[in-house]
Write a structure and sequence with these properties.
The complex is a heterodimer of chains A (265) and B (265). Chain A contains 11 helices and no strands. With 265 residues, chain A is mainly alpha-helical. Chain A has one domain. Chain A is globular, with a radius of gyration of 19 Å. The two termini of chain A are 38 Å apart. Chain B is mainly α and 265 residues long. Classes of the chains: A mainly alpha (265), B mainly alpha (265). The interface between A and B is large, with 42 and 40 residues.
Chain lengths: 265, 265
Amino acid sequence: MSSLSYYGRIWLASARYSLTRALMFRGDLAIWTTVEVLWIGVNVLMMGVIYQHTELIAGWSLYEMLLLVGTSMLVQRFLMGFFWSGIFEMGRNVRTGLFDFVLAQPGDPLFMASTRKVELDGLLNALSAAALVAYSAHKLGLHPGPGDLALYAAMVVCGIAIHYSALVMAMSLAFWITSSQGVEGSYFTLMEFSRLPREAFKGVLSLVFVWILPAVVVSNAPARTILHGFQPLWALGLAAATVLWLGLAVGLFRLGLRRYTSASS
Amino acid sequence: MSKYAQAFLAGLQSNLVYRWNFGVRSFFWFFHLVAVYLLWGAAYAGKADIGGFSFAQTLTYFVVIFVMQFFIGAFNEDYQISEDIRMGLINQFLLKPIHYFTYRLSVFAAARVVSGAFGLLALALAIPFFHTLLALPGEPWRIVLAVPALLLTAIIQFSIAYCFGLLAFWFLEIQGFVILSMAIETFLGGQVVPLDLLPHRVFAVARFLPFFYQAYFPGAIITGRQGLDFALQGLVIQSIWAVLLVGLAEFTWRRGLRHHTAAGG
């Protein structure tokens, strides 16, 4: 418990520093907030254009798809807000040797590296994604109860943990390759699948993207909870994927850390 | 001229250092293609065509757009230019008879040769899975017109990235502007949906914007989404945009230099 409180205090100090810094550069904050809204807009427009030419995608209507896309973006925006900058910089710092700075800090290196910064614009845009989910639910005439909403929130937290793991694994490649520049794109590519309904996956693609990689379950499980209520199989699948992928990410990071020789060696 | 040939060769060498990054990016490009296949495959279910084009034609469009980006896309040139300015590295160019735009264009060309090779490798890996689903038109004029269209697209993409990089003369942090522009370019460039699926009025306006010529236009020529008359008219508009953007790049450079302070020895 004392360890939890210790790390909690470290995170709060980092968050306070990040928020103060974000408010010092308000123009930058406004631009990044606009950027994030535009990217949500790009996804909504894409769906809007496709649905002008078709009624259903894998059995999902426009607003069901927007609810799925909104859920996927909600998870991603929280990841951006809480962890993106720290993990992204980790890749660069491993190459330059600045990762020494993280190792010298009194705490677990993965925690210290990934929680260094909180991005206010990412958190603000989680509101935009949540608004898209709420709007879609309204257009579908859904009225989820408090239990469904609590379950949805818990599943979003699991989704963030899975996204976090995928990003840590992608950026941990920096321990092996010359530069991690551009590798973060691999995370975004994999997460493209989270905007697709599970029914779109057939055969071997279903095996890979639904059962082996966690991209689909991350968004489909919470979205289905809002659309159809509690579904035990999806909840169990998401919980199992969370434990598995967090374990893999921590394992890969620690394996990579053994290769780290700092800039001066 | 030989100095720019040397810059090209040096660019080739420095980009080959990052071959693993290009390799990883190419590998994940394959996943991106799978996501497109799933989404559009589901949208086409039970339909012979969307917007007058078959599933094979639309999938071919996306494959061509993706491969094209490896050869002509400006990935992080804006960031490199902004770093040159922020770190004072452009001072060395100001003291030598080197035209910075041409120098950067030479390095850009070298980078695209390397990334293009990896793009072809990714395509070679993807072809066995997708070749039965692709449909390229056989008219020779398309290849003849695609060559200048692709070269002009490369100039447009590079010039836009160059101008954004030069914003570092005025702003400490330009990534926000870059990603903001990327969101607009991604949609209006036709990278998420073929622009001919947009409502007619929107398409008519988009045709006169530079984004239209960043990906959609050469892609539409190659994949048969537009006819000869449209292609010829488009080449004229594209040439005008290329000249305007190169002019804007030169203008921005001159104005930016007035703000530049070359400190230190």
